[in-house]
Amino acid sequence: MKYVIINGSPRRKNTCAVIKQIKTNLEGEFEEIYLQKEKIPLCVGCYNCIVKGEKYCPHFSQINPIVEKINDCDGIIIGSPVYAMNVTALLKNFFDHTAYLFHRPQFFTKKAIVVVTTAGAGHKKVANYIDETLRHWGVNKVYKIAMACGGKEHLETEPIDKVSKKFFKDLKSNKLHSPKFGDILFFDVWKAMANMDEPIKPDAEYWNETGLINEDFSPDVKLNFIKKGFSKLMFFILSKFIK
What is the assigned CATH class of domain 2-173? Predict the structure, then answer.
């Protein structure tokens, strides 16, 4: 197993401690990326990654190696403390740079575990935000560990062990989970946009070159007949609406 750890904490405190405990329940190779060390410039909102292609991002040389590491891994671990009821600026900046993955999702066979720590509140909300972002990337299954650590001398390892062992067992099984209806809906939104008369060029190229334009969802992930029917109906409606 290969894991990539994307650590959005500027300090090596509670978030790092939880990630360290998670690693004791996993087997394989770990590569940890501390976003603080990467010194990625702020996303400038130029839209180049979306309308021209991700290679036109002014910070492509710093972002793409991280995306490639995600492509090459089996499991993703993403961590952030809660800052002002959201992820840290470090992690949000990285997510902003990967906005094109919403249009062109690709991690359909990946599974992830999200770590969020806080001294007070907001941990569940922030964990749900990271979960939603990863599912927009196409990630198949997301596990969450959201912990309030304020005032505690020792880390509660039991809930960490429980979730991380479940995550590892799932990875070893090679099972791919059926997507939620919301994930299918967004898949159809981007597919319909790529199928417009005048689509965003990189979107159209991606959806056609991968063959996803002809699929109800990623062919790696099985859908039952209800979800297949839902996908076909949504794509038909969205295609009409978007045109």
Answer: alpha beta
